[in-house]
């Protein structure tokens, strides 16, 4: 079953972002849901699909639905790390195409920064017992391992990684909602405290609070919206492991299979993509994802991002919000990739608006390169 | 951990106690299984045989940790965590034991040694 143009995004919104010390995860999701539905011109009582994920609870769908007063006919709690929301977008479209629901709400909220969120620890008794004695800090250590491998095989340098962080900051300076907007240089990134070498402090995403919402509707419902819809052209998903020691090849992520599936479904080529939103949990995540999705060949991502190519004014519009590195990163970032892609496709991004904005690719990575879902979107 | 460990897990940890690094091969399809399982990861056969590793391997990737994940390990930091391709065809992750030889990188040769910790004996790497 192809999901090509089977569903449209009708509304997107963030909650308050950054440091939100007076809100719960449910309140943040209520804020985002209200704003996303309002911009779509859809009443809450039309919502018949709910998709959400959060590390704060064992049954987040139940808690969120009860709090918002939603009784979904279709409910999905796929939880595969930060990429969950890209999975949700495909699943929402599939459910809509199958006639299971007509208006699906994808939600996320986290108070990770302010620390009121309880996080459920992984069970030490399962597979983790074969890895945890190594003393690898999760997830940064796993990404550092991948970076070390990329450096050894391809000659990638810390400066190449720093290009990603600096470009993200330059985009963030154009985004009033971004958490970190002060100037950042390659030298700053290189001089930052080491965390898990080769990764240093500024190679790592932010820790913030925040929530987001995405409203997905059927083509029929998309005829009566407050804003022009954004269409799903293609979707693909994949996951390959849970533990980094079980990842088959540290230089080839599930983005390869997910991206292949998304492009096949969308019927567009990589060169047709105007805007890229690529999960940047760490600087290395962007490099490996670019290679795995096929925007460049293995080993060529350093050249791809070099010399400001992915910064504002560069040849590639990538992570135009400032990304998880500079805009926000409340535990999981996937929903914010969708929000920014939709705004770019609608041409709403003001000083950071990309001139040509017909198509966008979103690549969500979860866990330690465990999961990826890739979505290809187009404006109306 | 031992209280709740399954037979498979308990057998592996008993090997560590005896300073043996164990893995499995499948009698049906010859696949190497690590971590150990009750059914083969490749073909689901229950006919898995324990093997003892030569404990020799090569650095596949490594990271130098400055911020340890637990309070117990904080005193050890900074230290290397190594993901190694073992000569026995499985990949294995462990910390590099503190010693005179700390100059490792991708491709370096390693051997597995064992170290007492507060809770239990664990495998570590040592550069060779
Ligand atoms: Zn087998």
TrEMBL record, chain A:
Residue span, Thiolase C-terminal domain:
236-378
GO MF annotation: an example: acetyl-CoA C-acyltransferase activity
Q: Which residues form the Thiolase N-terminal domain?
A: 16-218
Alphabetical list of CDD domains matching this protein: SCP-x_thiolase
The family database entries (InterPro entries) matched by this protein are listed as: Thiolase, Thiolase-like, Thiolase_C_2, Thiolase_N
- Tell me the NCBIfam families matching this sequence: PRK06158.1
Q: Can you say what this protein is called?
A: Thiolase
From TrEMBL, chain B:
Location of the ChsH2 rubredoxin-like zinc ribbon domain: 13-46
- Name any one Pfam family assigned in the record: zf-ChsH2
Lineage, opening ranks:
Bacteria, Pseudomonadati, Pseudomonadota, Alphaproteobacteria, Hyphomicrobiales
What positions does the domain ChsH2 C-terminal OB-fold occupy? Answer: 50-115
InterPro entries (UniProt xref): ChsH2_C, ChsH2_Znr, NA-bd_OB-fold, Thioester_dehydratase-like
Record's protein name: DNA-binding protein
């Amino acid at each position: 079953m192809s999901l090509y143009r089977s569903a449209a995004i009708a509304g997107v919104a963030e909650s308050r972002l950054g440091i939100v010390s007076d809100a719960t995860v449910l309140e943040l999701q209520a804020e985002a849901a209200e704003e996303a539905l309002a911009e779509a011109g859809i009443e809450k009582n039309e919502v018949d699909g709910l998709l959400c994920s959060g590390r704060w609870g064992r049954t987040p769908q139940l808690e969120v639905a009860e709090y918002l007063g939603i009784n979904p006919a279709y409910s999905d709690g796929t939880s595969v790390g930060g990429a969950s929301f890209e999975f949700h977008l495909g699943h929402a479209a599939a459910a809509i195409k199958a006639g299971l629901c007509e208006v699906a709400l994808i939600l996320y909220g986290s108070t990770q920064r302010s620390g009121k969120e309880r996080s459920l620890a992984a069970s030490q008794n399962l597979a983790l017992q074969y890895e945890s004695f190594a003393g690898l800090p999760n997830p940064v250590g796993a990404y550092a391992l991948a970076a070390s491998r990329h450096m050894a095989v391809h000659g990638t340098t810390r400066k190449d990684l720093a290009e990603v962080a600096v470009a993200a900051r330059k985009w963030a300076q154009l985004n009033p909602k971004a958490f970190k907007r002060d100037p950042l240089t390659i030298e700053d990134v290189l001089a930052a405290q080491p965390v898990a070498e080769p990764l240093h402090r500024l190679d790592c995403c932010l820790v913030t609070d925040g929530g987001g919402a995405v409203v997905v509707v059927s083509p029929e419902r998309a005829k009566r919206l407050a804003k022009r819809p954004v269409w799903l052209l293609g979707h693909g998903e994949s996951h390959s492991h849970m533990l980094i020691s079980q990842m088959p090849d540290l230089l080839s992520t599930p983005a390869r299979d997910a991206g292949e599936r998304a492009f096949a479904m969308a019927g567009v080529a990589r060169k047709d993509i105007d805007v890229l939103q690529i999960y940047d949990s760490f600087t290395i995540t962007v490099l490996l994802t670019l290679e795995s999705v096929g925007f460049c060949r293995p080993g060529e991502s350093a050249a791809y991002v070099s010399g400001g190519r992915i910064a504002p004014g560069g040849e590639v519009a990538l992570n135009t919000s400032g990304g998880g590195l500079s805009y926000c990163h409340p535990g999981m970032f996937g929903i914010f990739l969708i929000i920014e892609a939709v705004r770019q496709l609608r041409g709403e991004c003001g000083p950071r608006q990309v001139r040509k904005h017909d198509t966008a690719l979103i690549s969500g990575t979860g866990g330690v390169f465990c999961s990826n879902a890739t979505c290809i979107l187009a404006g109306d | 951990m031992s209280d709740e460990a399954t037979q498979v897990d308990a057998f592996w940890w008993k090997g560590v106690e005896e300073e043996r690094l164990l893995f499995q091969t499948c009698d049906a399809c010859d696949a190497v299984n690590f971590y150990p399982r009750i059914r083969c990861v490749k073909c689901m056969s229950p006919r898995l045989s324990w093997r003892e590793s030569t404990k020799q391997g090569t650095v596949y990737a490594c990271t130098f940790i400055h911020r340890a994940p637990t309070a117990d390990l904080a005193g050890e930091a900074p230290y290397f965590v190594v993901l190694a391709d073992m000569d026995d065809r499985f990949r294995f992750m462990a910390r590099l034991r503190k010693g005179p030889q700390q100059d490792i990188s991708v491709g370096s040769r390693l051997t597995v040694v064992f170290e007492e910790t507060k809770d239990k004996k664990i495998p570590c790497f040592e550069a060779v």
